[in-house]
Specification:
With 176 residues, the chain is mainly α. The chain contains 7 helices and no strands.
Length: 176
């Protein structure tokens, strides 16, 4: 969805396909970098004596809050600022992408495959539904503004879940 927005935003600049490709790659490169930085930050916190819960939840919350910066794109007309904001948003999304670390930390040793499969199932459900919802939003409004709000709302929902629903991060022990 955001790569479509990037192309949409860049189209008035009359860039070649190659130039637009390089510019559109910036958010993805930032997301990649954010993923590495988020993991390094979490590990750094663990080495400094923070609890596993704090070391996992802190980057997730910081990352998802940073990802919400995409909403500002709705109020900016300057293309390079929009690309910069989207890159910042992707950096934040990557920084907070510690879901697999949490799965590894919490999965019962007897069923790691099942835990991973369930995690992927719900992740893929979001990957399936988000483009559909974005399509409906765009069709109804002829704008990506609502789509960016929808994605940011999902980030806020993730923050709420990690702060209010997810308790202490520790390995689940199955009863014998």
């Amino acid at each position: 969805m955001l790569s479509v927005r990037t192309v949409y935003v860049l189209s008035p600049l009359h860039l070649s396909i190659l130039q637009a490709g390089f510019v559109a790659a910036l958010p993805a490169l930032c997301g990649f970098s954010g993923g590495i930085l988020g993991g390094m930050f979490s590990d750094w916190m663990l080495r400094r004596g923070y609890s596993l819960t704090t070391a996992r939840k802190t980057p997730i919350v910081i990352g998802m809050l940073t990802a919400c910066s995409m909403i500002i794109c709705n109020y900016v007309e300057v293309q390079w600022i929009i690309v910069g904001l989207m890159s910042l948003s992707f950096l934040g999304k990557g920084f907070g992408a510690l879901g697999w670390a949490v799965v590894a930390d919490t999965s019962p040793k007897e069923v790691p495959g099942l835990s991973g499969a369930l995690f992927n199932t719900f992740g893929n459900t979001a990957a399936i539904t988000t483009p559909i919802v974005v399509g409906y939003i765009y069709d109804a409004t002829k704008s990506f503004d609502g789509a960016l709000l929808y994605v940011a709302a999902n980030a806020i929902g993730a923050i709420a879940c990690y702060l209010l629903v997810v308790g202490e991060i520790k390995r689940v022990q199955l009863a014998p």
